[in-house]
UniProtKB/TrEMBL annotation:
Residue span(s) of domain Aldehyde oxidase/xanthine dehydrogenase a/b hammerhead: 39-145
Composition bias type Polar residues, residue spans: 1-12
Region (Disordered): 1-31
Protein name: Molybdopterin-dependent oxidoreductase
Origin species: Streptomyces thermocarboxydus
InterPro entries the UniProt entry points to: Ald_Oxase/Xan_DH_a/b, Ald_Oxase/Xan_DH_a/b_sf, Ald_Oxase/xanthine_DH-like, AldOxase/xan_DH_MoCoBD1, AldOxase/xan_DH_MoCoBD2, AldOxase/xan_DH_Mopterin-bd_sf
Length: 769
């Protein structure tokens, strides 16, 4: 926990002792589900049960690329206890799906395009029977050579009817002939990070008497999932209902439908409830991952270190299917120069299909990859000019009113210089003592370092930026209803609580607006109006905005009779701590008395201002808003073994407005830690398209013991006037900045270029001449 966050919590505690628990916006209100999760009673999808339950298993391809010659399900169907087997022939409706572009089949039919692609699904009376029956499905393959190098995808035979190129964005901004006195170049590679959900991916499908089906899922976009499922099942949308069960947290893994659709098909075919709880291996094979990326950069600067031009080529590996790769590429190209003023920029961006596992939405998609590259370039520039790395950045940072390479003016608060100053000037942590008692402080832990004398300390910086909400014309809208009766408020909004704290925020908004302490948020299902997907901070902005508008409408209904009775406007009345008072003190009553047993309710929508797609030159106002984060990393590196210990990460971030201090600190710390994994350990290896070690032994997630001291040294509360409450999303920006900062610090400690993430030990070894 950061020093600042701890201070905020202490202040809250003192307030509670004096005046009782704080409520409303700005208070550290605990999450409503915190106790249930702590006690193990929270209803996750894997815990669900139904009478007459069957179990499902999915057969997945062992090959990354093959032609399917035949699928024989005879043996599987004849096994005792097996109730149904489905393949592509049993999909009655649309046979393709996709979050962004619909190009991914429910089941492979003619060609397998990636390792782990679903071919069949089985329902049986026992989970072991289902798995054995799935293994008994006989598939005859003609194995084909996989295309796993995204650079080869341009010349390879088409892997998909839509071709290998998902999208190309040529960004042109400024003078192509501009040159700088100093030029630095670099080639960078970013690995494949897995969302690695801690909770099991699971679901339950229950057939309905009307021929429809209900799906109980940890969905982050229930209405989108419903529409896709209805199309695949050949049903009307009102015949499919998604009920959101407990989401253990989502950073992309809850957005994939590789097992949800087979689950529904089996329930419809058998007429029985069907459940699937994926193994860890099935999770790795089934869901999407962060886009592996290849980046080539050339930075031009003048003799003072001011940027003149940036040239870059960005290649995203979409894997077998397009998914959200178009969105990720737009972010990568738009933010390819980072939060710096660049008068001339020429960026070529591509996303291509390969036979690698599909890529999709993960926090900071596109922006994280380019941040690692442009910050490496800034380090090279500083070294070549003999400048301090922080100073060369300070000479180029963006501010409100500057223009992105896309031609869009930055109208939101962009206090990048203030953030950089805060982390630069924050005191450095003390050096470890050269004593046996402090060996654990060295890279690798006790006995991990060869010799203390081989340890070098480095300091580096990462300046990251992300966009909030959807982009390029996405229609972001959310609907919410607030109902008040008998002193209790109820919020109905289909915004899924994925760990970002929306349920807590909704309670705080109603408490702040109506002065009612007891606020309940109704569980989410698709009988409610849509609220959209839970990513890019949209529920804080759009769904929170809808809740606020509905609450204010109820507030007006509550206050109008009183205002009319006393001959004043509702603006002259205020609600504080459950009491309604007038500006002159003439009126003083409680909310409960004013309600007088009535039921008040209102429904409202929130829709941000529209955006536009990038044009053929990569120009356009594509983003609703942006958020910025600056991180200073301090690392210790054993230059003989190449082991790295992150000592401290100092974070400064513009948050618009702090709505819940404890929750905000937790979100920043979680984002920083996810970035730590991308920097040092997390790399899902796929030699020749095969996922190697699809488990948490082979895929190294950072644990609590790996997490460094995270110091939140500054939170800039400059409200974004177009955002409800003025708040910004907080979790994605630290994910973007922290890998770049850690790599920068390792460069400072070793003098090595460090051009690949995650950082391999050999990249941090310094050999003597």
């Amino acid at each position: 926990m950061s020093n600042e966050a701890a201070t905020v919590q202490t202040a809250d505690a003192a307030t509670e002792e004096e005046t009782g628990p704080r409520r409303g916006l700005g208070a550290s209100l605990p999450a409503a589900d915190a106790r249930a999760k702590t006690e193990g009673t929270f209803p996750y999808a894997a815990d669900l049960w139904a009478e007459g339950l069957l179990w499902a298993a999915v057969l997945r391809s062992p090959h990354p690329h093959a032609r399917i010659k035949s699928i024989d399900t005879t043996h599987a169907r004849e096994m005792p206890g097996v109730r149904a087997v489905v393949t592509h022939e049993d999909v009655p409706g649309t046979s393709v799906l996709g979050r962004g572009k619909a190009d991914r089949p429910v089941f492979a039919s003619e060609v397998v395009r990636h390792h782990g692609e679903p071919l069949a699904a089985v329902a049986a009376d026992h989970p072991d029977t289902a798995r054995m029956a799935a293994a008994a499905v006989i598939v005859e393959y003609e194995v084909l050579d996989p295309v796993t190098d995204p650079e080869q995808a341009f010349e390879a035979e088409p892997l998909h009817p839509d071709g290998n190129l998902v999208r190309h964005i040529p960004l042109r901004h400024g003078d192509a002939d501009a040159v700088g006195e100093v030029v630095v170049e670099g080639l960078y590679r970013i690995g494949r990070q897995d969302p690695a959900p801690i909770g099991a991916e699971a679901g339950l499908a229950v057939p309905r008497p009307d021929g429809g089906v209900e799906l109980y899922l940890a969905s982050t976009d229930p209405h989108g999932d419903r529409d896709t499922a209805a199309a695949a099942f050949g049903l009307q949308q009102d015949q499919v209902k998604i009920v959101v069960t407990g989401v253990p947290g989502a950073t992309a893994d809850r957005e994939d439908q590789s097992f949800q659709l087979p689950l529904g098909l089996l329930a419809l075919k058998t007429g029985c409830p069907v459940k699937l709880a994926a193994t860890r291996e099935e999770s790795f094979l089934g869901h999407t991952h962060r886009h592996p990326t290849l980046l080539r950069y050339r930075h031009h600067a003048d003799a003072e270190g001011k940027l003149v031009k940036v040239e870059a080529q960005i290649l995203l590996d979409a894997g077998a299917y397009a998914g959200t790769s178009s969105d990720a590429l737009a972010a990568a190209v738009a933010f390819a120069c980072g939060p710096y003023v660049v008068p001339n920029a020429f960026i070529e961006g591509w996303a291509v299909r390969t036979n690698n596992p599909p890529s999709g939405h993960v926090r900071g998609e596109g922006a994280m990859q380019v941040c690692a590259a442009y910050e490496a370039q800034m380090d090279k520039l500083a070294k070549k000019l003999g400048l301090d790395p922080a100073e060369v950045r300070m000479r180029n940072v963006m501010a409100t009113g500057d223009v992105l390479p896309t031609g869009q003016t930055v109208t939101c608060p962009a206090p990048v210089a203030e953030l950089l100053e805060a982390v630069r000037d924050f005191p450095l942590p003390p050096l470890p003592k050269d004593t046996p008692e402090d060996e654990w402080l060295l890279p690798g832990g006790p006995e991990g370092a060869g010799e203390p004398a081989a340890v070098r300390r480095g300091v580096g910086y990462g300046l990251g930026m992300v966009h909030m909400l959807g982009a390029e014309g996405a229609d972001e809208v959310s609907t919410a209803t607030v109902r008040v009766q008998n002193g209790v408020a109820t919020v109905l909004c289909a915004a899924v609580e994925t760990g970002q704290g929306f349920s807590t925020l909704a309670r705080q908004i109603v408490q702040e607006t109506l002065g009612i302490d007891e606020v309940h948020v109704v569980p989410v299902d698709t009988d409610q109006p849509p609220a959209g997907a839970g990513c890019r901070g949209r529920h804080t902005w759009v769904s929170g905005g809808a809740v606020e508008r509905a609450a204010k409408m109820v507030r007006t209904q509550l206050l109008q009779p009183l205002a009319h009775k006393f001959g004043m406007s509702t603006e002259l009345l205020q609600i504080t701590d459950g009491k309604i008072t007038s500006y002159d003190g003439v009126l003083s009553t409680t909310v409960t008395e004013a309600m007088d047993g009535k039921e008040l309710w209102a429904t409202a929508q929130c829709r941000p201002h529209p955006t536009e797609p990038l044009d053929e030159a990569g120009q356009g106002d594509a983003f609703v808003g942006m958020a910025f984060c600056v991180i200073r990393a301090v690392v210790d590196v054993d230059i003989e073994l190449g082991s790295v210990r992150v000592v401290e990460l100092a974070v400064a971030q513009d948050v618009g407005r702090v709505l819940n201090p404890a929750q905000l600190a937790a979100r920043i710390e979680a984002g920083v830690t996810q970035g730590l994994g991308a920097a040092l350990t997390e790399n899902l290896r796929t030699p020749r398209g095969l996922i190697r070690h699809p488990d948490l032994t082979g895929y190294a997630l950072p644990t609590a013991l790996d997490a460094p001291d995270i110091r939140i040294v500054k939170l800039v509360e400059e409200r974004d006037v177009v955002a409800p409450f003025g708040a910004k999303a907080v979790s994605a920006a630290p994910v973007v900045a922290s890998p770049a900062a850690i790599a920068s610090a390792v460069r400072a400690a070793t003098g090595r270029p460090v051009n690949r993430l995650p950082i391999r030990p050999q990249a941090a070894v310094v050999t003597s001449n």
